[in-house]
Amino acid sequence: MQVALFGAGGHARVVLDAARCQGLDVVAAVDDRADLHGTSIDGLPIVGGESALVGLRARGVGAVILGVGSVSASRARAALYERVAARGFLLPIVRHPSATIASSAELGDATVVFAHAVVNPGARIGRNVIVNTSAVIEHDCVIGDHVHVSPGALLAGGVRVGNGSHIGIGAVVIQGVGIGSGVMVAAGAVVLHDVPDGARVGGVPARALP
Known about the structure:
Layout: E1 2-6, H1 10-22, E2 25-30, E3 40-41, E4 44-45, H2 52-58, E5 61-66, H3 74-86, E6 94-95, E7 100-101, E8 106-107, E9 112-113, E10 118-119, E11 124-125, E12 130-131, E13 136-137, E14 142-143, E15 148-149, E16 154-155, E17 160-161, E18 166-167, E19 172-173, E20 178-179, E21 184-185, E22 190-191, E23 200-202, E24 207-208
Parallel strand pairs: 1-2, 1-5, 6-9, 7-10, 8-11, 9-12, 10-13, 11-14, 12-15, 13-16, 14-17, 15-18, 16-19, 17-20, 18-21, 19-22, 21-23
Antiparallel strand pairs: 3-4, 23-24
């Protein structure tokens, strides 16, 4: 099946590389930045904005992989996921071949797992989740939809993360801790206690941020 990439920034390049390594047939990219139309991303033509998906579907493109990242993009990624799904596209899981994913782990549609990440037994990963480079999601973690687990973040056994939360680069969450929905855990934080919905925490140990 032919696949389109949505996005043409740095995160999209990593998604594209993982998809190519996985063997997906990615044939075109779309991005709403008009100045990029007619250019390319790592040799992949950028054929237009979101509206170009209609023409791609008519050409036989049946799936889309999402290349929208960044710290503050969770709501935008969630809305994009819903729009693309509503157009009838498949949203395949992207798994870099060097990632280690246990046979008993569950991954939702449109989730991406990048190089050297680890998802251990019993972990349940929601839809449209980013498990970034070298992140570790230990046994029996439950990760909600549209979560971003940044590079090098470590989630110990039984951690729960609510929808739309962001776990910063190099953050550590100890075993059994619950992270609410819409939470931002700052880079390098060490989270020892549950974090309520919508909170921003950082530091060692992690405390509420203004």
